[in-house]
Amino acid sequence: MAKSLKKSYTSPTSAQVGAVNYSAPDLTRHPPRSPRTRLGGYVHLPRLIDKARAVVAGTNGDFHFNCPMDQRFWAFTGLKPAALFKQIKAGKSDSELLAYVAAHCNPPRHAAEIAAWSAWFEQQTPDNPDGRAFFNDVHRKNAAHRKDIETWFDWLELDDYVTYGGRP
Questions:
Q1: Which of 10, 43, 106, 138 is deepest in the core (most CB within 10 A)?
Q2: The whole model's pTM is what?
Q3: Cβ-contact 101, 93 below 8 angstroms
Q4: Cis peptide leading into residue 107 (ω within 30°)
């Protein structure tokens, strides 16, 4: 009887292919989602969630939960960082976290307000001399020749790209 020539195949694990596990991202290997990525219309929320999940997993590297960018989200939504962190630590999905944000936002926000805030936040530039000096220093180190780096979101995306091996 002839032997089967078929080899058994198993799919590679996400770790083997370098995939990002969004339920426990390893920010020592991959950046969090772009600040431009939206969840429920909110810019930065997916990035904030990635950072918190990485803190829970102990894989946040140099990323901080409740940084100044996160604090702008708290100011707009009226949410407390510890309260949302508790939900993230409980293993809630993105959609469950968005439902939590909607239910606890104070004051409640309508889609048009969220869209306007997101558009405003996406265009923010350093607003004080210390912030401008920090922005310029990292911009110079990462890609001084890039004249299109104007907003904090531009800066974060460039910094993520360069930090994880991209060439400016």
A1: 43
A2: 0.84
A3: no
A4: yes
> pLDDT tens digit string along 83-134?
999 999 999 999 999 999 999 999 999 999 999 999 999 999 999 999 999 9
Diameter of the chain by CA atoms? 81
Amino acid identity of residue 34, one-letter, is S
Name 79's Cβ contacts closer than 8 Å, sequence gap at least 6. Answer: 73, 101, 104, 105, 106
Looking at residue 106, its amino acid is N
User: In the chain, which residue ranges form alpha helices assigned H by DSSP?
Assistant: 14-17, 45-57, 68-77, 81-89, 94-104, 111-122, 129-143, 152-163
Give the three-state DSSP class for 151.
coil
3-state secondary structure 47-90: HHHHHHHHHHHCCCCCCCCCCHHHHHHHHHHCCCHHHHHHHHHC
